[in-house]
Amino acid sequence: MPNTLEFLRKDPVEIHSWPYWAVGATLKVRRLILSMTCGLGFLGAFLIIAVNPSIPLNWGWNTIEHISDPVPYHNYARSGAVAMAQSGPWLALATPGNGVVVVSTRSRVPVISTEGSVLDVAAGPEDGSFFSLASTQGVDLTQRDRWGWRRKSWLEEPASPFWKSARPFELDDVLFTELDQNGLFIAARGAGIARNRFVVSSGGVWRTRDWQQSDKLSSVDLGQIISTARGYWLSLGSGGIRFADRATLNEVPERSANMGAVSQLSAAKSGDWAAAVDEKDRDRHVAERHDEGIEQPGDDAGARGGAMG
Q1: Are 236 and 288 in the same domain?
Q2: Are residues 217 and 257 in the same domain?
Q3: CB neighbour list of residue 290: distance below 8 Å, 6 or more residues apart
Q4: H or E element: which one contains 39?
Q5: pTM here?
């Protein structure tokens, strides 16, 4: 029988409390656990890179198909977003009621919301900058700096961005065009007259988005036109002769005449007089007398020779 005292003198043996620890201590099991850990880590890293556009290794698979506002009972779709653009890690939405709404691609929280109605938006010259087209046809630049976001006017809104013609017209309806340093003058049959303004500066002549329009003659049933040094003689489709000042395009009432529909219109290059023949082959002569008044002979056929001479 062994000596009890000798057994007690031996060092104690440490046994792990987890009974399966000995199984995990084998080389084969350790390799299996290591391979599973590496596989799960690789899969997690792959998913993070694929869905996070801010990571440089991102493949661009993550595309934004819908954007919503985390504020309860509100989203961007109901706000009527009409356009969206990306500039770096930022998205800008053009809305007709809330202006430009800028959000980060890493979240859905808006960082800035401007005022006014915006029709379109595009990326600006730098990351974190956007061009926006307002309903007034002005162009603003919304840009991020170290102090936050700021908006400034990049292109002033035109005073008259649209030509309010009597009717839509095509290229074949254009009767006369004239290009000078004041702009491009256009006269269209059945529409009227207007001028697309030019601006002269030290850098040259620049086309603007502003239309110079007449007080009465930009929306008329225009039949014929003659350009002179002082302005433009016009005949209307419904009848009558009108004169538009060259500088302002406004009608000069003293140089107008009422008559039937004009079949032929002629005028002096100086603009001092004009003569017209109506559909009934009757003449009307409109002339200036010493800058004091207008001579308008009768509609008799006998005046034809002096009028056209």
Answers
A1: yes
A2: yes
A3: none
A4: helix 27-51
A5: 0.58
